[in-house]
Amino acid sequence: MTLELAEKTLRQEVQKLDKRVQIAAVVQGKKKDTFRITLLKDGRSSTADLKKEIIKEFLSEEAQGNALRRALGKAVGHLSIRHGR
Questions:
Q1: 41: domain range?
Q2: Contact 7, 22 (CB under 8 A)
Q3: SS3 string of 36-55?
Q4: Are 52 and 35 in contact (CB under 8 A)?
Q5: How much is the pTM?
Q6: How many folded domains does the chain comprise?
C-alpha cells in the first residue's frame, strides 16, 4: 500500500463525511503499521492515527468499509467538537 493510494482513499471518505474537512497530510505513523493523517476544518487542525489494515480491508471490500468510516467519523467528530462548529 502506497501513501498516494491511502491519501486518495482517505480524501474521498472524509469528503463523504463532512465537506468542510480536508486532509492536509498523510504520513507514515510512528508505528510501522499506521498512517498519521492531519485534518483541517475552518482553519483548525487535528491528527489521527489509522492502522493500515483498516484501509486495506476497505480497498478489498471485505469489511464493506465500516471500520474505516467509523475511525474517520470519530476523527472528524473530535475535530468538530474540539473546535466548535
A1: 3-83
A2: no
A3: EEEEEECCEEEEEEEEHHHH
A4: yes
A5: 0.81
A6: 1
